[in-house]
Design goal:
Layout: H1 2-7, H2 12-21, H3 23-37, H4 41-51, H5 62-79, H6 81-84, H7 89-112, H8 117-136, H9 144-165, H10 173-210, H11 216-241, H12 244-247, H13 249-275, H14 283-307, H15 314-345, H16 349-376, H17 382-410
Helix pairs in contact: 2-3, 3-4, 5-7, 5-11, 7-8, 7-9, 7-11, 8-9, 9-17, 10-11, 10-14, 10-17, 13-14, 13-15, 14-15, 15-16, 16-17
């Protein structure tokens, strides 16, 4: 590597190729050679590039810090409303869990992206209507439509979070892909914050135990609950002000987990044949099968979002293409099982919701897989896959809105 660098010091393009082929070896070799190259403008540029150290942790502007602290305190207050006003916890949390964090994150990005007052008022109005609607549904025996509404409402709020993240505009595939990337980074940051919180919880409770104070109930009821409500907001703030914190970790996670999930999925499908289990007659198994489908779909989207901004190797594209193909097979099995159950036992809210979701996912997967195939045959680049993913996202938001607001009326609140 030393000799190759010296031979190509007058060829910037070749130096760049050497660097991309083995970044670590290039850095070590270049820093070793730097004393004899000192003074060369190109060498100075490479030295600064290779040895640049990011600034200390950034904490945003004063206004942003005030907003985040205020939003975190408000999220903690909302999480404790059942205790403060003696509300039924099951009733409150099942219907309102999404309203503890999502509206505050929506407000954060609305402020950060300076969306118009008209758009902000429209979003606030929708959230208030959604709160009133979900809490006005019948309180008797929980029906399927109520459960479906409680499940799909957070998904709808997530869609509006993406809308606000993109500056209050429905168009813009790049912004949608950035939104998926933000979600991946937020998951990583949240996991780190939760691990740190668990460590602090263990130490704190242990220390107080040593002096005979049993603070477990108080700590979990107030500190832990309030902390869990604030974590997504703090995590969002950290990822937005310090993208370098997890910017390099997320692509690595995507590269590691994509092939692992592909292998796991293939082995799992083979194991199903020998296990005697099938989603056609086992309702619980079908639910788990669909959860698996959604999880794998999320990994595909996360992988593309995290690595589309960088050059991907042919092997990585092949892994994602094969993963998409296997996921289409999983989707086909789940879809056929749902159709079988509908033909045998009729339509229900649950079956209608799962059928619609599976059809939408299948269409999306076919579209994305076709783009992967074009990338492999050199007819398109990876950016087209990202566009295929981003373009379709509003469809999921529309479906979540239908299930949340129309299903209760279509199925008589059953």
């Amino acid at each position: 590597m030393h000799q190759e660098i010296l031979l190509n010091m007058d060829n910037p393009l070749q130096l760049e190729k050497l660097y991309r082929n083995d970044k670590l070896a290039f850095k070590v070799a270049f820093n070793t050679l730097y004393p004899q190259l000192k003074g060369d403008p190109l060498a100075e540029g490479w030295y600064q590039r290779l040895n640049y150290s990011p600034e200390d942790l950034l904490w945003g502007t004063r206004d942003e810090r005030v907003l985040v602290v205020g939003a975190s305190l408000l999220a903690a207050l909302l999480a404790k409303l059942p205790d403060l006003f003696s509300l039924d916890k099951e009733f409150f949390y099942t219907r309102n869990i999404g309203f503890i964090v999502f509206p505050l994150l929506i407000a954060y990005f609305a402020w950060k992206n300076k969306i118009s007052q008209k758009t902000g008022a429209w979003l606030a109005g929708f959230i208030l209507i959604a709160i009133g609607f979900i809490n006005s549904l019948p309180q008797g025996r929980p029906g399927d439509t109520l459960i479906l509404a409680c499940i799909h409402l957070p998904l709808l709020l997530w869609f509006f979070l993406g809308f606000t993240f993109g500056g209050g505009k429905l168009s813009g595939g790049i912004n949608r892909l950035d939104f998926l990337r933000y979600n991946g980074e937020l998951v990583v940051m949240t996991a780190l914050l939760l691990l740190a919180g668990m460590l602090m919880t263990g130490i704190t409770i242990g220390l107080f135990e040593l002096i005979g104070w049993h603070i477990q109930n108080f700590y979990f009821n107030y500190v832990v609950v309030c902390g869990l409500a604030a974590v997504p907001i703090v995590g969002t703030f950290l990822t937005q002000t310090n993208p370098q914190l997890v910017g390099k970790v997320s692509p690595v996670i995507a590269k590691i987990f994509s092939p692992l999930v592909l292998v796991m999925l293939v082995i799992y499908l083979i194991a199903i044949i020998y296990s005697g289990k099938d989603p056609y007659n086992d309702r619980e198994f079908l639910l788990i099968f669909n959860a698996l489908l959604v999880g794998v779909l999320a990994i595909i989207f996360f992988s593309v979002a995290e690595t589309s901004k960088a050059t991907k190797s042919q092997l990585e594209v092949w892994v994602l293409f094969l993963l998409s193909c296997v996921t289409i097979l999983v989707n086909g099995i789940a879809l056929s099982a749902i159709l079988f159950r509908i033909s045998e036992w009729g339509i229900t809210p649950n079956r209608a919701a799962v059928l619609g979701a599976n059809v939408l996912i299948l269409i999306h997967l076919l579209f994305v897989t076709a783009q992967f195939f074009k990338v492999l045959t050199k007819k398109a680049d990876l950016a087209e896959v990202g566009k295929a993913i981003a373009f379709y996202l509003p469809v999921y938001g529309l479906w979540a809105m239908i299930v949340t607001f129309l299903f209760p009326f279509l199925f008589g609140f059953n």
